[in-house]
Design a protein that fits this description.
Strand content: under 5%
Largest sheet: none
Helix content: over 70%
Structural class: mainly alpha
Oligomer: single chain
Number of helices: 4
Shape: elongated
């Protein structure tokens, strides 16, 4: 989550996120992919939780 929110969220993406739902969706996809990729070496079956984290993160960012 921290990696996706701070390292992989550059300034233009942050602005896009505040202006359009498409920016929120792209950011959510980045968080989902980063979470899944980080969990993959430890437990390949953890993908449903990565999906849950990505979707809830996207929802929360969308309503903010």
């Amino acid at each position: 989550h921290l990696f996706g929110d701070y390292i992989l969220q550059w300034d233009s993406l942050s602005r896009w996120k505040s202006q359009a739902i498409s920016g929120v969706l792209v950011h959510g996809a980045i968080v989902l992919a980063a979470t899944w990729l980080f969990s993959l070496p430890f437990d390949p079956t953890w993908w449903p939780w990565a999906l849950f984290i990505g979707l809830t993160h996207t929802f929360i960012d969308g309503v903010e």
